[in-house]
Amino acid sequence: MEGSLFLPDALSETAKEIDGLFYILTGIAVVIFLLVWMLLLIFLVRYRRKHPTKEGLRLYGNTRLEIIWTVIPALILVVLGIYSAQMVYALQKPPADAYEIQVTASKWKWEFTYPDGPNGGFTTLNDLRLPAGKPILFRITSKDVIHSFWVPELRIKMDAVPGRETRVWVKPLKEEGKFKVLCAEYCGTAHANMVSDALVMKEEHFGKWVASGGKEDPSGQPLDGKQLAQQFGCLACHAIDGRELAGPSWKGIYGTERELADGSKVKVDDEYLKESIVNPNAKVVKGYGPAMPAYPQLSDAQLQALVDYIKSLK
Amino acid sequence: MEAAHRSSFLREWILTVDHKKIGILYGITSLVFLFLGGLAALVIRTELFRPGQDVVTPDTFNQLFTMHGTIMIFGFVIPMLTGAFANYLVPIMIGARDMAFPRMNALSYWLFLLGGLVLLSSFFIGQMPDVGWTAYPPYSIESKGLGLDLWVTSVHILGLSSILGAINVIVTIFNLRAPGMTFSRLPLFVWSSLATAFIQLFGVPALGGAVTTLLLDKHAGTIFYNVAAGGDPMLYQHLFWFYSHPAVYVMILPAMGIVSEIIPVFARKPIFGYKAVAYSSLTIALLAFFVWAHHMFVAGMQLSAGIPFMVTSMIIAVPSAIKVFNWLATLYRGQIDFKTPMLFATLGFVGLFTIGGLSGLYLANVPVDLHLHDTYFVVAHFHYVLFGGSLMAILAGLYFWFPKAFGRMYNETLGKWTFALFFIGVNLTFFPMHFAGMLNMPRRYFDYSYDPSLAWLNQISTIGAYITGVAAVLLAANLVVSAVRGAKASANPWGALTLEWQTSSPPPHENFEEIPVVTSGPYEYGEPETPRKRFKYGQTVGGETISG
Ligand code: HEM
Ligand SMILES: [Cu+2]
Fold first, then answer.
1. Closest CA to B188 of B118, B130, B272, B286
2. What's the pLDDT score for residue A175?
3. Which of A157, A218, B328, B380 could make an SS bond with A150 (beta carbons 3.0 to 4.6 A apart)?
4. Could you list the residue ranges that cross the membrane (chain A) (predicted)?
5. Ligand 1 centroid to B231 CA: how many Å?
């Protein structure tokens, strides 16, 4: 992501408005910063002590000056407050026709549930896709601890709180390649790996994608196991170079025999690997706790791509 | 011989109820915590030098930032300002012989040490808390091991210590002022300590309640935060910030007090707008209790419910701004002497605190905070106020009152070098964090491989952190060596006018041979008279005659 040094690309109208406010604040901040630092430096240089016993000017205060520098910042802040408050109301009121996406956070993944599709709705894992030009309402919740749904390019952030539904809405402007959803509320070991892909699609592409239940990538690319492993956060716990993280390394495990927690043995083949992804606690390798989340929502094609990737790690 | 020596050490330090010795104990202990917290920070910064996982596991990383935050706030800044400085200075500055309750004062210190040790014990048993210094449930309740239990126990003990300390400061200031020491003649550090003590007294119980509920939920099966049973995790956040926002002012008001003492002395000018500075402290202390939910704009309350808190947060910036303008005006047409404390107070505190105050305006703004909340921008913000602000003032104060407390001078050249390194280090470390946060880096991440282009910003930060580490070593070397071998200090090496400088260095057991009679304010500098002539603090004080 190149972007500027200041802010990432702004992909929605709201994001642009927030940026506008950001730059107004920056203008004010820079002026005050320069004022303070210039006075500081000028005074420090200009009034250096010339003689050890010299005394400064006997000046206790100046009521007029003090009133001025109390009232001016206060006025600036009042104006700023009124202006920002209006924006807050706009931000919290979604248009009536907004397309609703359910966001479910859990340790350490994002699930997005779309209201339509082949079987009346489907869920994707760490894969958020938005139609360009349509208002979208996110209904956010969590299955375990507090997480926070942050999309820097959309300038929105909202905590995912268990037992509650929080909401935030946006209207993405145009088709835009990959960006990220990040978790902004500390949630434990793999907090930093709770990252989802996000994408704004042309409305008709989005329609096709939804109609396929999220399984079919309209671009028709073959699935890439390595990319899926990153996208689903597998690599947070599984190294591919033999190091032991929270889970066993994948390097060279295909075809070997593993000892399970209950003492029995199992051969690492396609079937075992698929089971371990869909239902990881069925067979836990000796020495590891039942830490891995289940991934029941993966398609067969995605599962096979992951298994092929693991196979390829010699 | 040996035994006699040991027993006098016991009597002099362990059993002491002298506020000056207790202050020094507080100071030394907090400095040890500063170094421990600093080590944790260096490991954190080393991990973040590159994307990916390098030197520690994710779990260790999470423990380290929890320990770092907790140690710095509860083990260093708060006890240093309200324990060390307030203890040492408040009684002497108001012309008292000691605190109102000397034995309770000693108890405060020993509770502080105990609380600190309980926290550190988690390191030795290998079960450090990993809940963040905020310990939000339900995450904190689910955490394994003894980490949370030790953390809560420690916070309780430290809180008790704070409450006792606050009572002592309040009663001392109200009851033990010397004759003639009216409220309008109180040094500004005393005003700020008074405001701070009130914050502690009213705020700490909320914190105690909040952390207790965590333990109850974890061990006693209560359901404060158990969602399945109808509990609500946001209750904790309200309780926590009801204390912890005012706590950030506990960490800055005394620092502002220190700076208000130092600038007039080295500028040889009265403080500009004494009343405004004093009342700003009280205003801030009061307003501090009405801004807490600005930490929770996106926590799940309605966005518009944030508006009143946005407004109060912006209002509280005004008294802070007033103080900055007053300090600047105090420099105007002064005769400024750049001793180490003055460097830390002006370029250090005034300059850097301003940056932290300005970034606070962004965060107080609901729409902008939607983007910036819980990112590295917030980390930059609170380090500019806490490191650029509180710590710079603490360092200014350490150098300034060192000759008083130890009767010896620190090394001036080394002091200036230390300042330069701290100044460079702090800015290199924390300025780039604004940009990392504005782009896409959340706080409390041990890895940023989702965007390796964040690396260069992080690398500058890490290098800055090492420079700060070097500066800290120079600081320690200067203080330790000078305490033993420094040149002898006179009673009043800076020609200051507050009462602590009117007695010997170090002061005698009960501070003054004779309680001084105060006849004028604390900052009566300025042409044409020399300051000493304007003072009639007492007759013979500390072996030196001060002519009236
Ligand atoms: C001009 C005055 C200030 C304003 C308007 C301000 C505003 C804010 C806001 C809105 C936040 C929450 C940011 C977020 O979580 O998104 C924050 C965080 C913080 N502020 Fe300030 N602040 C000011 C001064 C200070 C001072 C004087 C201190 C301490 C000496 C301080 C220390 C902190 C700390 C420690 C946090 C982070 C707490 C945490 O989340 O762990 N601030 N500030
Ligand atoms: Cu706050």
1. B272
2. 82
3. A157
4. 20-45, 66-85
5. 28
Rg (CA), chain A: 27
Minimum-distance ligand 1 atom for the alpha carbon of B357: 1
Q: What is the pTM of this model?
A: 0.89
Six-digit token string for B364? 């107080």
To the nearest whole angstrom, how far is the Cα of B358 from the nearest Cα of chain A? 6
Q: Is the CB of B295 under 6 A from ligand 1?
A: yes
Q: What is the pLDDT of residues A203-256, one digit of tens each?
A: 888 988 898 887 766 555 567 888 888 878 888 788 888 877 778 889 888 888
Mutate to test the pocket of ligand 1, among B199, B294, B325 (most ligand atoms within 8 A of CB): B294
CA distance A94 to B303: 12
C-beta of B121 in contact with ligand 1 (< 6 A): no
Per-block mean pLDDT, blocks of 10 residues, chain B (548 long): 63 90 97 97 96 90 96 97 96 96 97 97 94 94 90 95 97 95 95 96 91 93 90 92 92 97 95 93 92 91 90 91 95 94 97 96 95 97 97 98 96 97 98 96 94 94 97 97 94 92 92 88 76 45 40
Give the number of residues written for chain B: 548
The torsion region of residue B10 among left (phi > 0), alpha (psi -120 to 50) and beta comes to: alpha
Given a contact cutoff of 8 angstroms between Cβ atoms, the answer to whether A211 and A218 are in contact is no
Mean pLDDT check: name the lowest of A128-132, A281-285, B4-8: B4-8
Which has more confidence, B546 or A267? Answer: A267
- Cα–Cα distance measured from residue B164 to residue B406, given in angstroms and rounded to the nearest whole number: 27
H or E segment and range at residue B156? helix B147-175
The ligand minimizing its distance to the Cα of B358 is: 1
Phi-psi map region of B522: left, alpha, beta (phi>0 left; psi -120 to 50 alpha):
alpha
Q: What is the pLDDT of residue A301?
A: 75
Task: Give the whole-angstrom CA distance, residue A68 versus residue B121.
Answer: 53
Q: What ligand 1 atom has the least distance to the C-alpha of B364?
A: 10
Quote the distance between the C-alpha of residue B142 and its chain's center. Answer: 31
Q: Which of B345, B333, B290 is nearest to B314 (CA)?
A: B290
Task: From B391, B465, B382, select the one nearest B427 (Cα to Cα).
Answer: B465
CB of B206 closer than 8 Å to CB of B156:
no
Chain A residues touching B445 at Cβ < 8 A: 191-192
Contact B498, B93 (CB under 8 A): yes
A172 has which bridge partners? A12
The predicted-structure confidence for B488-532, as pLDDT tens digits, reads as follows 999 999 989 999 998 999 999 999 988 888 888 899 888 665 545
pLDDT attached to residue B535: 47
Residue A275 is which amino acid? E
Distance CA A105, CA A141 (A): 6
Q: Which of A108-122, A285-299, B262-276 has the highest mean pLDDT?
A: B262-276
Give the number of other CB atoms < 10 A from CB of residue A39.
17
d(CA A242, CA B18): 60
SS3 B460: helix
Q: Residue B137 class from Cβ within 10 Å (0-12 exposed, 13-18 middle, 19+ buried)?
A: buried
* Per-position DSSP letters for chain A, written without gaps between them: ----SS-PPP-BHHHHHHHHHHHHHHHHHHHHHHHHHHHHHHHHHHTB-SSTT---------HHHHHHHHHHHHHHHHHHHHHHHHHHHHHH---TTPEEEEEEEETTEEEEEES-STTS-EEEESEEEEETTS-EEEEEEESSS-EEEEEGGGTEEEEE-BT--EEEEE-B-S-EEEEEEEE-S--STTGGG-EEEEEEE-HHHHHHHHHTTT---TT-PPP-HHHHHHHTTGGGT--SSS---SS---TT-TT-EEEBTTS-EEE--HHHHHHHHHSGGGSPBTT--S-PPP-TT--HHHHHHHHHHHHH--
User: Which residues in chain B (364-403) have CB-CB distances under 8 A to chain A?
Assistant: 365-368, 370-371, 373-375
